[in-house]
Amino acid sequence: MSPALTNFLFEAANFLVLAAVLGWLLFKPVRRALDAEQARHAQETEAARHLREEAEVLAREARAEREAAGREREARRREMLASARNEALQAAEASKRAQVAERQRMEKELQDWRDASASELVDTVGRIAAESVRRLLSAFDGPALDLALVRAACAELDSVPVEARGAALVESARPLDARSRTLLEEALGGGVHERVVGELGAGVRVTTPAGQVDATAVAVARQAARSVNRVRDAHGVSLEGG
Amino acid sequence: MSAEVFTEHVLVWLGPVPLTRTMATSVATSLFLWGALAPVGRAVARTPEGRLAAAGRLMYRFLRNLVTETVGHPSRGLEIFSGSLFLFIAGAALLGQLPGFAPPTTNLAATSALAVLVFLAVPFAGIRARGLSGYFKRYFQPSPLFFPLHLVSELSRTLALALRLFGNMMSGHLIVALIVALVGLLVPVPLMALDLLIGLLQAYIFTILASVYIGAAIRVGEEEGA
């Protein structure tokens, strides 16, 4: 057999045997290891993909929750703002009402004080006027002021029913003289209950169950003041307390 | 080192069958590869974190990428075939640097055997991929007149495979042997390194070409099947 042919055939067989041996001892375990590694990598990649998907889902949920929380916070903020505005309006309204009430109270106090001052002024003016008139009448030897006022009161008492005249109280600035007492007893139809009230200025004030007849200097002054007030109300002019 | 270019040095006759020195170096190369790479396979299976296992995975991944780029997808049989070709030729070049060791690839019969195996693997893979008629139909395309050209093409490339590997390995080994015979041991060291580099390069070229030839037969079948 030719050495070249033998060599050729042997080399071919040797290589095939070598390939089989290497395929069994080297390539097969390495290929299995690589396949296992590739499968593990694929599994890990799949797991990572799942984790990423879960993370994306969680991220979407977190984003949605954050947006919902933002909307809720915005709504709550608006609600609180509206409530605060409402409370502020109510507080302002209450303050305004309190100011108005305080102003009205102060105006009322001022009015009361004005009324009291006017009444006191009227009384004082009445007394002074009565005293001045009485002195003036005395100086010219004229009729007594007190007697004239008693006569006026007696004339007024004619309008009071007779049955109501019995329990009358007669108040005067000074003790009644005899003439005045007689006139009053005739007008009242009986005894006279007297009382001296210096603030009346002059004249008498008769109080009966049916009403009061005031014929004093103070009453005249008050009547004058009321007349002045009527004029003031009609023309916008005030004579009481400036 | 020694080199016998066109003669076969018969070591012993076993009856009518001669046992040549190329056959002995081929067996030695195979045993060397077996002994060197079997631990790598065991290491990959048992201690995958070790350096040996990493080297094994790296080498196999290189082969797989080579085949995948050639064929278009991983092919287990082609990976084993091409990987064995690369390892055998590279191992022979490596052992050829030993004094007195003539690599089997410096023998034309050995390189012809490898080239003929590639020549046979091409129709084997093509028929397996596209069937008998499907594979041989391509020899008559685009016209039956092209059949002789296809045949000559396949024969010539097989011859080119054998001669390219034989010429490169034999010439490099012969030059180193001549330098060693003339000037001594240390002077030809750069040439020995160059010879080793050429051997590794030829192993890569032979493997690439074999993969391209076989992959072309497989891919043509798949493209037509698709």
From TrEMBL, chain A:
Keywords: Coiled coil, Membrane, Transmembrane, Transmembrane helix. It comes from the Bacteria. The chain crosses the membrane at residues 6-27. Residues 34-116 form a coiled coil. This is Uncharacterized protein. It comes from Myxococcus xanthus. The lineage of its organism: Bacteria, Pseudomonadati, Myxococcota, Myxococcia, Myxococcales.
Automatic annotation (TrEMBL), chain B:
It is a multi-pass membrane protein. GO terms for biological process: proton motive force-driven plasma membrane ATP synthesis. One of its GO terms (cellular component) is proton-transporting ATP synthase complex. It comes from Myxococcus xanthus. The chain crosses the membrane at residues 80-102, 108-127, 174-194, 200-220. This is ATP synthase subunit a. Keywords: ATP synthesis, Cell membrane, CF(0), Hydrogen ion transport, Ion transport, Membrane, Transmembrane, Transmembrane helix, Transport. Belongs to the ATPase A chain family. GO terms for molecular function: proton-transporting ATP synthase activity, rotational mechanism. The gene is atpB. The keyword Cell membrane applies.
